[in-house]
Write a structure and sequence with these properties.
- The protein is mainly alpha-helical.
- Helices cover about 50% and strands about 10% of the residues.
- The protein has helices spanning about 5-10, 15-25, 30-40, 70-80, 85-95, 105-110; strands at about 15, 45, 60.
- Strands 1-3-2 form a three-stranded antiparallel sheet, sandwiched between helices.
- α2 (about 15-25) crosses α3.
- The radius of gyration is 16 Å and the shape is elongated.
């Protein structure tokens, strides 16, 4: 029996769509068919509302995972793995204890043009 998208999300936790496609491919579903299934997933599959991953990739999750520790750990993991510029900014803040003066953010985030 073919797994559903919610079953993959239960196993893997909240994830960027490419990780779900990879897991489906391991189960014998073509990448194209997997992407189609994800794009047609119903309202019970949530997508992070702000595009923070490169190439407009979606971050998918189930409602019961929203705001959980697993959600945020996977979200940061996926931003780092995809090379998201937001991950660099978050890591810079984490390295300094999580709080920084606003005037230091451009340097810490690696975007000195913001100053």
């Amino acid at each position: 029996m073919m797994k559903t998208i919610p079953q993959y999300l239960n196993e893997l936790g909240p994830s960027r769509s490419s990780l779900i496609v990879e897991a489906m491919a391991k189960d014998g579903i073509s990448a194209q068919a997997a992407r189609q299934r994800i794009s047609r997933a119903g309202d019970h599959i949530r997508r992070f509302p702000i595009p923070m991953l490169p190439k407009r990739e979606a971050f998918l999750y189930l409602q019961n995972d929203r705001n959980s520790e697993r959600f945020w750990l996977n979200f940061i993991r996926d931003m780092r793995a995809s090379g998201s510029v937001y991950a660099a900014a978050i890591d810079g803040m984490i390295a300094r204890g999580g709080l920084i003066p606003a005037d230091e953010f451009p340097t810490i985030s690696g975007a000195p043009g913001l100053a």
